[in-house]
Amino acid sequence: MSAAADPAAATGPRALAHPGREEIRIEDVLHALADPVRLRIVRRLSGAGEGQACSRFDLPVSKSTSTHHFRVLRESGVIHQIYRGTAKVSCLRQEDLDALFPGLLDSVLRAADHQARRLGEDGHVQRTDG
After folding, report:
1. pLDDT 10s digit of each residue in the chain, 130 long?
2. Is the residue at 9 inside a domain?
3. How many whole angstroms separate alpha carbon 68 and alpha carbon 5?
4. Which residue from 15, 80, 111, 119 could staple onto 3, CB 3.0 to 4.6 Å apart?
């Protein structure tokens, strides 16, 4: 059972709205993944293996903009968020996305990794001609 399908995770006074698996649309997922900051969040969640508190992400944007990016990812069905105490914890909805769009997330993540290597950590294109 995915985190999004866990009824216990979606109840309580601080529950966050998430689309059900059947409500997730490819155009919303692609829109969410098209932003560099959101793609950075997804790449980190993909490598984490478990949920990550939003406050643990070092993003090059303000806190309010960061909140917006997480909300777009959640509302598009890319991530699932729950409150653990005062922390909002995010996890990737890999199982749901793989069931709906087989291979999409893996392909996007591979392409993003390739681009990161090609551009280098500072964002500038690496010369390959020596």
Report:
1. 444 444 444 455 578 899 999 999 999 999 999 999 999 999 999 988 789 998 888 899 999 999 999 999 999 999 999 998 889 999 999 999 999 999 999 999 999 999 989 988 655 444 444 4
2. no
3. 23
4. 80
Which two structure tokens, joined as six digits, stand for 8?
């216990």
What does pTM read for this prediction?
Answer: 0.81
What's the CATH number where 60 sits? 1.10.10.10
Exposure of 17 by Cβ count < 10 A (0-12 exposed, 13-18 middle, 19+ buried)? Answer: exposed
Query: In total, how many domains does the chain have?
Result: 1
Domain with 61 in it: 19-112
Residue 83 in any domain: the answer is: yes
